[in-house]
Write a structure and sequence with these properties.
Layout: H1 2-13, H2 18-26, H3 31-34, H4 39-51, E1 55-61, E2 69-74, H5 76-92, H6 100-104, H7 111-138, H8 146-175
Antiparallel strand pairs: 1-2
Domain Transcription regulator PadR N-terminal: 7-82
Protein name: Transcriptional regulator PadR-like family protein
InterPro entries: Tscrpt_reg_PadR_N, WH-like_DNA-bd_sf, WH_DNA-bd_sf
């Protein structure tokens, strides 16, 4: 979904072709490598978006001794669908790292709605974390397994605190207009 959001957001800015979008994503920082985005994956998503009617070919550039370049544009349906895809990304993300493309495309959505989605996500995260902590207290562990249980408890507590911290930080930065 993130790749499709990236493509749609770039096509709102202007018509473009797949190879150029991949090049833009790789310079100056190779985000395409970090995300494992290959040309074949990118072309797959262009094809999927075309089948959904969200983008369309508007020009074919033919150059001698080079493959044809298909130039794409976003359709009206694509413009309407982009915010829905961004909201869905925030709703489905389990960590801030999964929200990066959504955060990069906040200009295409209502920031207050994103904040509400994240506040609800944070509340559910804390409820789940508290439930698990209460459950741990009820477990009767024999002495031989106590070190392992303590290790796992520390790990998951740290991970839960980290996730909560960064969701809170993301909410605050969106509210302050720093993202």
């Amino acid at each position: 979904m993130a790749i499709q959001i990236y493509i749609l957001s770039k096509l709102i800015e202007g018509n473009n072709y797949p190879y150029e979008l991949k090049r833009q994503l790789s310079e100056p920082i190779p985000f395409d490598e970090f995300a494992g985005l290959t040309e074949s994956k990118l072309y797959y998503h262009f094809e999927a978006l075309t089948k959904q009617g969200l983008i369309e070919v508007v020009e074919v550039i033919r150059e001698e001794h080079r493959p044809d370049k298909q130039v794409f544009a976003i359709t009206e349906k694509g413009r309407k669908e982009l915010p829905k895809k961004i909201y869905s990304l925030f709703e489905k993300s389990k960590a801030v790292s999964e929200m990066i493309i959504g955060l990069a495309t906040l200009d295409y959505v209502d920031r207050d709605k994103v904040v509400l989605i994240l506040e609800e996500k944070l509340q559910k995260h804390k409820e789940r974390w508290n439930h698990m902590a209460a459950f741990r207290e009820m477990i009767d562990v024999d002495e031989s397994r106590m070190n392992f249980v303590n290790f796992m408890s520390d790990y998951f507590d740290s991970k839960a605190e980290h996730t909560a911290h960064w969701i809170e930080e993301t909410i605050e930065r969106i509210k302050q207009g720093k993202i």
